[in-house]
Amino acid sequence: MSKSKDWLADAGTDTKLCHIGHDPADYHGFVNPPVVHASTVLFPNARAMETRNQPYTYGTRGTPTTDALCRAIDALEGSAGTILVPSGLAAITVPFLAFLSAGDHALIVDSVYSPCRHFCDTMLTRLGVEVEYYDPEIGADIERLIRPNTKLVHTEAPGSNTMEMQDIRAISEAAHKHDCVVTLDNTWATPLYFKALDFGVDVTIHAATKYPSGHSDILMGTVSANAKHWPVLKEANITLGICGAPDDSYQILRGLRTMGLRLDHHYKSALSVARWLEARSDVARVLHPALQSFPGHAIWKRDFKGASGVFSFVLPASVPEKIKPKAHAFLDALQLFGLGWSWGGYESLAVLVNLEDRKIRKGPTDGAVIRLQIGLENVEDILTDLERGFAAAAEV
After folding, report:
1. Alpha helices for 177-280 (secondary structure H)
2. Which of 36, 30, 32 is nearest to 64 (CA)?
3. Span of the secretion signal (predicted)?
């Protein structure tokens, strides 16, 4: 096998996923990178130590294992650099700390991941940053919210739980007129289905816990930046002393090899389930961007190459007092679906979501929003289990 991987530039997605990050010729021909456990790194002499004139200087600043994963993510994102952090939430908070200072104003989409909102409303506010939430469907009109001290616009497409689509290119163009940094939580789509930097995003964020891992056993986040913003992101990463572990990096890199195949299965199965739900009279509506009935479908169809396995639906109730009891009955009757946070693994999950913290875009009032993660099980078995849930909810 030739050491040159120039041929990868024109290869298909699954081929790239099989070969990015590590070149076997760099390590005795072994197809996977070594797992390098390191804190201390030795220098050959005092001058080298003073100038740090060698590839590796300390464990927090990278190892061959973590670098292999960073190179793989950069290949997928088209980014200038990637940092690894211990969780998806850290992947959001680190760039916020990198690009925001006391006295700055930040615009955060109101459909944001709930722990991100908690960070903004507590620690970020305490540090002197003014946080303002905006409607996810605002598009280019976000420019009217930008102030002289607005430094960052955070996006998420689709939105957590209610799946609102954002016009990322329009938002980015408006933000860049005022020199704002645009960040995007792109966990749902991954760079396989939405290549964020091509749409004007400066910093793209992923909970690698989800689809890159794929097996519900690793916590990690990745943050990738374009060339303009990479130096600031990298410096913040070093200053904060936050890094990804080599064992976890190896597992995420291993997960990437099959991510394309898994995502395709999630996509097809979830869309089948969503269409089945949409046809039911005991479902108020299905919140899935790939459905033509969904308000943001046109943006999804224009900008995205696919959809993942996560979406929501509204379980209606005749009176408000029955919303939660019906939802609990539905969830408690499920046998195949697990009741647990997170998603992106091989197993199906269901969650009753809480939208009470919304400021601008309120949640539905006619029923409970139940989020589903459609796993890799047979669709027929998934539908049978959902039937159990609907039968139980009908008794309430």
Report:
1. 190-193, 230-240, 246-278
2. 36
3. none
Distance of CA 42 to the CA centre of its chain: 36
Q: What is the mean pLDDT of each run of 10 residues along the chain (396 residues)?
A: 68 87 84 91 95 93 96 97 98 98 98 96 98 98 98 97 97 98 98 98 98 97 98 97 96 97 98 98 98 97 98 96 97 97 96 94 92 98 98 97
> Judging by DSSP bridges, how do beta strands 150-156 and 105-109 pair with one another?
parallel
The encoded tokens of residue 360 equal: 């601008």
How far is it, in rounded angstroms, from Cα 261 to Cα 263? 6
Query: In this structure, what are the phi and psi dihedrals at residue 335, rounded to the nearest 5 degrees?
Result: -115, -40
**Two tokens, residue 67:** 């670098």
Task: Just give the CATH number of 4-252.
Answer: 3.40.640.10
Structure token pair of residue 69? 């994963």
Q: Quick one: which of 284, 288, 262, 264 has its CA closest to 274?
A: 288
- How many Å from the N-terminal Cα to the C-terminal Cα in the chain? 64
Q: Where are the domains of the chain?
A: 4-252, 258-393
The pair of structure tokens assigned to 246 is: 């080599």
Query: Distance (Å, rounded) from C-alpha 272 to C-alpha 387?
Result: 15
What six digits make up the tokens of 385? 């289990």
- Which tokens hold the place of 127? 């540090």
**Fold match, 4-252 / 258-393:** no
Spell out where 317-389 has E strands.
338-339, 349-352, 367-373
- Using CA atoms in the order 80, 17, 372, 357, what is the torsion angle rounded to 10 degrees? -10
CA dist., res. 214 & res. 276, Å (int)? 25
Q: The sheet that has 310-316: what strands, in order across it?
A: 285-287, 310-316, 367-373, 349-352, 338-339
Please provide the DSSP assignment of 230-260 as one string.
HHHHHHHHHHHT----HHHHHHHHHHHHHHH
For the whole model, what pTM was predicted? 0.94
Report the alpha-carbon distance of residue 230 to residue 81 in Å, rounded: 6
Do 293 and 278 form a contact (C-beta atoms < 8 A)?
yes
The CATH superfamily holding the domain 258-393 is Aspartate Aminotransferase, domain 1 (3.90.1150.10)
Read off the tokens for 244: 């990804």
